[in-house]
Amino acid sequence: MPQVSFAELITGIQSGNHLASFPTDTVPALASRLDCAGLIFETKQRSLDKPLILMAGNIDDLWIYAEGSPTERRIWQAIATKYLPGALTLVLPASQQVPSSLNPKDPSTIGLRVPNHAIARTILNRTGPLATTSANLSGQPPLQTIAEIEIQFPQVLTLSPSELQNQLAFPSFSGDSPVSGVPSTVIRWTGSAWEVLRQGAVILDR
After folding, report:
1. pTM of the full structure
2. Residue 176 has pLDDT above 60, yes or no
3. Alpha-carbon span 46 to 38, nearest angstrom
4. What is the mean pLDDT of residues 179-195?
5. Burial code of 189-206, b = ≥16 C-beta within 10 A, e = fewer?
6. Dihedral through CA 25, CA 26, CA 28, CA 33, nearest 10?
7. N or C: which end of the chain has fewer CB within 10 A?
């Protein structure tokens, strides 16, 4: 699949016929429409017991996918306000709005994330929340460059270098966190506290 423009990448995702990859503040994402999440598992050769992450451009677009008491929601909102946008994934009890295809083996939970990267957030604000994971074959290190992604996944839509440069020229793209190349930290709500499932780019204050 050739590299595409910003508009073509968004249209390709919205069509449901294509996976897309775009930069984030950690590692490049592999993304699909929510109801097409099966494409990600198939393309990555990913086990169904490894859930996908629901990513959006704004945390307010994600709360409908989590189910919790008013007290729990205040706790979740507090940590989201502190760390998001950023390299943190919150694993929360899933609401009925979450397609079971995102976490086929345990549809009771869902990982939510808002990246601190303006290209990613601009795409996500246009498409709405997407099913995402890192761009790599399952069990292999995350791919870091467009060239690597195109070799591994020639069918996946990617932004052309000129398109990336055009997007980065916008003033609204200033203030992003540097791209770390390190996956996000993943924390799960246990019902009374947070449990760190994967230590990544964000170190939580204790």
Report:
1. 0.91
2. no
3. 10
4. 91
5. beeeeeeeeeebbbeeee
6. -80
7. C
